[in-house]
Amino acid sequence: MKQFAKALVTSLAIVIVWPFALLSGFGRAQSAFVAGGQFLSLVPGIPGDYLRVAYYWITLESCSLRCRISFGTFFSNSRATVGEGVYIGPGCVLGRARIGAGTQIASQVQILSGARQHARDEHGKTLGSHTGAFRDVSVGKGSWIGAAAIVMADVGDRVTIGAGSVVTKPVPDGVVAVGNPARVL
Fold first, then answer.
1. Considering the domain 2-184, what is its CATH architecture?
2. By C-alpha distance, which of 118, 37, 22, 104 is closest to 76?
3. How many CB atoms lie within 10 A of CB 46?
4. Which residue ranges make up each domain of the chain?
């Protein structure tokens, strides 16, 4: 009975977010995609969790319907993937992230779209993100990313990243990394 109720609520959420997904070109119209995600990030409680998952199931490159995306969290790039059983806490901003199954992400985490440096033009003015090529940042299966961490490089499977850590270099499987910059303990 519980699984039937969840399936029914998920189906209803998909119907509700369908117009948002359609307006975003199913994730292809970047500005509309981000606007839809930011709007839905503000829907509180469990209904909001279902709406966010439904929206990203339709618009992301891949997103499991069996995950949780909490209040205030949104993706800034539709080329992200979210595995089954993933939990993403409140207030996270995620770019071109590849999040493995069973990973848990605490609140206020940022997973950026690679560690690309902002270039400067011939006058020294910083060029915006529209000029650079972004890359995916992977977080492996069964990992834990602590609150307020910033992830700019790949994280392996079964890794723990400490709260407030800044990941600037790849982290191998099965370790604990903490600090700014994050170092393996």
1. 3 Solenoid (2.160)
2. 37
3. 10
4. 2-184
Predicted TM-score (pTM) of the model is 0.90
Tell me the pLDDT of the chain (185 aa) as tens digits: 899 999 999 999 999 999 999 999 999 999 999 999 999 999 999 999 999 999 999 999 999 999 999 999 999 999 999 999 999 999 999 999 999 999 999 999 999 986 555 666 777 776 655 555 678 999 999 999 999 999 999 999 999 999 999 999 999 999 999 999 999 99
| Structure tokens, 7 | 């399936």
Q: Could you give the CA distance from residue 103 to residue 88 in angstroms, rounded to a whole number?
A: 8
Strands of the sheet containing 137-139, edge to edge, are 62-63, 81-82, 97-99, 137-139
